[in-house]
Design goal:
The complex is a heterodimer of chains A (350) and B (376). Chain A has 350 residues and is an alpha/beta fold. In chain A, 39% of the residues lie in helices and 19% in strands. In chain B, helix 1 packs parallel to helix 12. Helix content of chain B is 43%, strand content 8%. The termini of chain B are far apart. Chain B has helices at residues 37-62, 76-83, 99-104, 114-117, 126-129, 140-154, 181-192, 223-227, 239-254, 284-291, 295-306, 311-334, 353-375; strands at 91-93, 169-174, 197-203, 206-207, 210-211, 231-235, 260-265. Classes of the chains: A alpha/beta (350), B alpha/beta (376). Chain A: One of its GO terms (molecular function) is oxidoreductase activity.
Chain lengths: 350, 376
Amino acid sequence: MTDTHHRAPAVTERESAVKTMTMAGAINAGLRAAMERDPKVLLMGEDIGQLGGVFRVTDGLHKDFGGDRVMDTPLAESGIVGTAIGMAMRGYTSVIEIQFDGFIFPAFNQITTQLAKMHYRSGGRLTLPLVIRVPFAGGIGAVEHHSESIEALFAHTAGLRICSPATPQDAFDMIQQSIASPDPVMFLEPKARYWDKGDVDTDAVRTRLDAAAATADIGRARVARPGTDVTVIAYGPTVRTALQAADVASGEGTSVEVVDLRSVSPLDIPTVVRSAKRTGRVVVVHEAPTAHGVGAELAARIGEEAFFHLKAPVLRVGGFHTPYPAAKFEHDYLPSLDRVLDAVDRVMTH
Amino acid sequence: MEATGPLSDEGLVQLLDVDGTRVADPDWEPYAAHLTPDALRLAWRLMTITRAFDAEATSLQRQGELGLWVSCLGQEAAQIGSGTAVREPDYVFPSYREHGVALTRDIDLPQMLTLFRGLEHGSWDPVAHSFHLYTLVIGAHSLHATGYAMAMDRDGLVASGSPDKDGAVICYFGDGATSQGDVNEALVFASVNNAPIVFFVQNNQFAISEPTTRQSRVPLAQRADGFGIPRVRVDGNDVIAVHAVTQWALRHARAGQGPVLIEAFTYRMASHTTSDDATRYRTRADEEKWRQRDPIERLKKHLDALGELPQEFRDAVTAETKALGKRTRETVKSWERPALLTMFDHVYAEPHQQVESERAWFDRYQQSFLDEGSHA
């Protein structure tokens, strides 16, 4: 950002492309841009046509691109992913909407045994550039199966890329980069953040949409806020909580660095380890249960690569080893600001 | 006791009876009329080669040269009859027992054994042969086939008004697969999208040990009715009838009239795989009954009666199968495992940090032994 102050004409041009958007609106705009760019990009899902999806993320696209490109499918998740695989074999890039996280499991077989492995088992002859969009995680007071954090279940499968945006800008850029990537990408949308607003520069991503650059970008973490005492690692819905924690901690004299992973597979270990070495204290925050999760993997990797820089054990703040509880419990189940601050205190006083 | 339900002879199309005598059927005759003695000799030759190769692969497994073999013994008519009805730009999605169909797609049969020798998961270029990789998760490929067919339709390869340019998909699966959710979803997607696809069910009467009566109370072809998909049930050991109904079905699909389901009623004469033991769940008498209906023998009787299978042709096919057997043995035994680090290849199309760091670590680990060796 500071660079732009020295380039006045560029600022004017760039500012003209900056718009305030919700995350849902940014994904919608990103989908539209990808569809305008490539006629072989299709959307598939349940209720994504005239209704615009249950979260309205595809609002208006059916009207503008027609039912052949914004396809309301039969109500069968395995069928959606499976037929999209077949269409990909003829060069179509389907962007699938799974209506809710908890409804993805009928497609678990197609995603893990077929989609993830086809490039490998064909010796690189077949590529399946699908994108599976999933409104995921909780915080909206929903009934059961509508608040699941599914990332660890899929991160264990080689062949998939898994990313999650935390800001409208990332949502706009990363959905287009996921579509440009030749690998299958699971694009996890933090549904509780759909209506968060932010500035979106709609021009910046255009130069980063070739396969290699797009793939690299969606796998790269970003330092969302620099700090020196504690690293808080988050992604998707918990980035906002981590930033709030950094604000509060700063008032108490603790400098928190927030790393927004953006990608769960691959994990950007170099960025994570650099930050861990700098601060010596790490807290990982995700909504998913901590047991066997992404935080556990990060703790192990940080232990392997930054052991002698650590001043405290890596702590995890996340869900419990229970089913996602009924809505009246979720405020306490989810990693709240208080629980993140508690973990920051514990690594500081270790 | 007469077989009933899914194992009955109900409604089977037959153009060649078990004695090799042509059966008159005016409905299906037009789709077999082009089968000249030359075409029938070709079918007999391809079926014979398939069987010889199958026997060779079984032997190689018994000798420890292959980890597993999945025999198609007894299903040669179902496979050659349907496979020879396929033409460009059709596309085939096999299950994992379609070695005869592979032969009709010009796949070099010995080459397909890399999968069964444990060298790789897919042995041929699916695009070059319009023949997808084998799929071992039962029925999973039926959805890929349906999606592929939907895309052919989008690409203008269906009902173009020029029948020679039109194409369709043919998707093979077995009686067990008809119980899978994916197959039922494929029938739904194909139906509502009017996809150009032929679902070809080889009912070989067994899903490993479970008879078809564990999958269905009615003949499997009837499943299609609820999806609004036309269906036909054919004697799967009658290569002429199989070819005729597949011709009809593919033309129907290519012309934009939508999906078709064919049930070819046949019998798996070998065990499920070389790891299986069919004597534990079926009788010798049952096997003997079906041996009397052998598809290759049936066509041979027919050609003999016509005087159209001269000795020199038989001798040439015998020489061909012997040469293929020798080449198969030599090829398989000549294969060595590819370089170890190739197991990290093609996990992703673009580099992935986790794979790359593990590959690099494993390379260093392997090199450390070589370094130790050089010190010694």
